[in-house]
């Protein structure tokens, strides 16, 4: 039977029979069958797939563990291990070299009588033993230097005395001494001496070496007593030249000199021109002397009379306060001489 078409006369509309229904139904059945077949095969082989997947994961992990680094990374690891070994060898050599330097320093300073361990402790900056030895060395050195300066310059007033003592045993002086004797190269410290060499006077490396020098004095005192420490201080510290006049400074020397002369019961100071040249020129020079009666106290020069008088009064004060005694006996050596006579006792400055 073929398809039938119904034709109505009133509207002339053609209505075809729904012949596509069978085709769609067939297609859906086919796709459903395909999907069911795929799912059936998957469910049938699922255990084997799961086992294979787990096995592949285990093999992958084992393979990852057995991997060796790439050649460039492997060579880098070898270089690092070789560098570590080299550093360890260098550290051993540096330690041996440091031991040799410490022994040489000990012999150079003639301190073989000091125990080697105590000597090393003095060079180990900021260790517990080093701090204790440095504290002792500070007071021992202050006592010895103050005693010596006071006996050598009995008229030196306290402020100038303190400045002079500091000039001998301050951080800068002890750091310079440490560098001269070679102590700075044997100091066991965390500071880099080479990088710190060009820094200021209060740099950490200089503080470290000066502290170690004080600790060394403390070690000598601890091991061999006060006399040995005093001998070391006189041989290495007080033997250095220093102009004590650099610590005698006054803003008003003329006023201070007048007060000093009254205190000493001397005639007042009088300034006199000793010589001059070029008074009418652009660069004159005057030489002025300061007298107390007939005694000449000081002399100075300058491009005008005021400057020359200023320098003359300052020279007179330096002459009085910086007077040096050549032959004297230290109070700490009183028991070593037959007849000990104490030296003169200084006084404070005329105008505090």
Number of strands: 5
Tell the overall outline.
elongated
Q: CA-to-CA gap between the ends?
A: 145 Å
Name of the top-level CATH class of the largest domain: Mainly Alpha
| Gyration radius from CA atoms, angstroms | 49 Å
Q: Strand order of the main beta sheet, please?
A: 3-4-5
Number of domains: 3
Overall pLDDT metric: 77
How much of the sequence is in beta strands?
A: 5-15%
- CATH fold call of the largest domain: Ribonuclease iii, N-terminal Endonuclease Domain, Chain A
| Major sheet characteristics | 3 strands, antiparallel
**SSE sequence, one letter per element:** EEHHHHHHHHHEEEH
- Helix percentage: 55-70%
- CATH homolog superfamily of the largest domain: Ribonuclease III domain
**Structural class by helix and strand composition:** mainly alpha
Low-confidence stretches: 1-19, 55-93, 190-202
CATH architecture of the largest domain: Orthogonal Bundle
Oligomer: single chain
